[in-house]
Design a protein that fits this description.
mainly alpha, two-stranded antiparallel ribbon, 14 helices
Length: about 325
């Protein structure tokens, strides 16, 4: 059965063409970048896929592209390479401990088995375009984008993904559920992150990675927050001393020092002229001066005389002098 390649609108550069253009057999063939036998998959994942009962028995019976799409619709529930709880890496070190995508293995997921099944069908550009634009299930689209990430040249990834970076269709990508992502965020992760759930994508050369980062910054320029404008608040009425202090920059050093001395003397006079409470003393009714220190007040008290000592000692000396006579 021959396939019609007319009016599809795709050429060698993956650019849309005007209506009525012809898609020939030559440019409908998809190139395979990297290893044409392993699909650039991790060796451990590929070994588990090829030895799994699901791939060898169930998927072996599927011969056509549409049958595989129907299987994806009914069977795929996440995008991880391993089923939940089947991969044990505890207690293992080195290359067997999950370093750089190599681990102890487990039950390989249905999604990756079907992804490799699509690779064995040698999809055409028309079929891949049908995958990424499918409207029945987001997992069909996600496996189409993952097929592009594993098999297409790094320089062509941006052309495939650019028009879908704003896609808001959601899906749960984690085995067992719990991590919902949009198609746009998944594609951004495919472009700029090498790791995907304990496995690795093919490396993208640094110059191509820098070009994609530049295009991404042009497509999504960083948002710069505007600084709030300063509101002009009218000045308050300051006191005369505050005004003198603010305007002291216009005065000379001599005038500034003279003003400081005057302020100090004025504050001293204010302190001296305050009305203090006058408390009567125990010795006499003389008014206490506020400037008498504690030491002077202690010396002048009746309980202790600086000449004769305490009253008890004075009484004892008088008693001794009287007893002599």
């Amino acid at each position: 059965m021959e396939v019609s390649y007319e009016n599809e609108g795709y050429d060698n550069d993956y650019q849309s063409k005007s209506k009525g253009s012809i898609l020939t057999r030559k440019n409908n063939t998809m190139p395979i970048w990297g290893n044409e036998r392993t699909m650039n998959l991790n060796t451990l994942i590929l070994t588990n896929i090829q030895s799994s009962h699901y791939f060898k028995v169930n998927l072996y019976e599927l011969k056509t592209y549409h049958e595989v799409i129907d299987e994806i619709y009914y069977k795929v529930q996440h995008l991880e390479p391993w089923e939940k709880g089947s991969r044990k890496t505890s207690g293992q070190t080195g290359m067997c401990g999950g370093v750089r995508g190599v681990g102890a293995g487990g039950i390989v997921s249905t999604a990756f088995c079907l992804l490799y099944k699509l690779f064995t069908l040698k999809l055409t550009r028309k079929q891949v375009t049908g995958l990424i634009t499918h409207c029945d299930s987001p997992y069909i689209r996600a496996l189409g984008f993952m097929y592009i990430r594993y098999t297409q040249p790094p320089g062509d990834l941006w052309d495939w993904y650019e028009s879908f970076l704003d896609d808001e269709e959601e899906m749960d990508v984690r085995a067992g559920g719990g991590q919902t992502m949009t198609i746009g965020n998944i594609l951004k992760s495919f472009l700029f992150k090498l790791e995907w759930y304990s496995t690795l994508f093919p490396r993208i050369p640094v110059p191509i990675q820098q070009q994609m980062e530049k295009k991404m910054s042009e497509k999504y320029p960083p948002v710069v927050e505007e600084t709030p404008r300063r509101i002009n608040i009218p000045e308050k009425n300051f006191s005369r001393d505050r005004d003198d202090y603010r305007n002291r920059g216009d005065l000379s050093d001599t005038s500034r020092s003279r003003e400081r001395i005057e302020r100090r003397e004025r504050s001293h006079r204010d302190y001296r002229d305050r009305n203090y409470e006058r408390k009567p003393s125990n010795a006499n009714s003389r008014e206490r001066s506020p400037y008498v220190s504690r030491r002077d007040d202690y010396k002048k008290s009746s309980s202790r005389s600086p000449k004769y000592g305490s009253s008890k000692r004075r009484d004892r000396d008088d008693y001794k002098s009287r007893s002599k006579y």
